[in-house]
């Protein structure tokens, strides 16, 4: 999950004693954790004072201690008022306290001082997501869950005002789009872009691999990706398990020939009780095409 949405601590801080205070805690204990966090960060020569203060501000936002967050942020602003990461944090704080107008002004300033920056993209994404009606989003997800993909895609596009989806919703948007045959190419390109920019996004990796299996021309590539994902059980157990299920389902869509038979035999060697696949090898059915019943189903919403 993007650090902005979780308001999580940095990786270095998670390795410190702050690991135990990721949920709301009494102010006294949170203050102790904040002090420990500052001490741990300060001992690292690679962590600048501005970064320490921003880590503190994000920590206090997580605890909903907005006054403490404001003080840490103000100190960071004194050091580097126009730094993109400081302005991004300022927008996060303003959004958290409900001051959307101020956050929008901060975004405009950030876009002026650092156009095209990651910080500007992150804050834009945050404001876009917060503006979305959760009731409308729930209805759209229900449409997608019932297989009404074209209507769901239209609903998403209305929510996004015809623009790009916020990154937090991009995977489910393109995954739903992949269930509309006429939009499959666009969905594949969208998911490919997400995966290329963040290979550790296992949820996107799974959605991309599944999408590739929907089309006969890319089905074998999708199978390869699904097989690779199964090796990440420790890092992404949910996605690895889903990849195994999708891999098995895709095998039943394949014709039985010298290229596919070894894959089926490998699966049966590991799953000897899979009588359905064994029956498919003996009595092959017509291979599934793109979309429709071929789709293994959407991932749960993040």
Short description:
The chain is mostly helical and 302 residues long. The protein has helices at 3-6, 11-14, 27-42, 49-62, 66-79, 84-96, 100-113, 118-130, 134-145, 149-159, 167-177, 184-197, 202-213, 219-229, 237-251, 261-270, 275-282. The radius of gyration is 23 Å and the shape is elongated.
What does this structure look like?
- By secondary structure, the protein is an all-alpha fold.
- Helix content is 65%, strand content 0%.
- The protein is built from 17 helices and no strands.
- Helix 4 runs antiparallel to helix 5 and helix 13 runs parallel beside helix 15.
- It is elongated.
- The N terminus is likely disordered.
User: Can you give the mean pLDDT?
Assistant: 81
Shape: elongated
Secondary structure tally, helices: 17
State the end-to-end distance: 9 Å
Strand content: under 5%
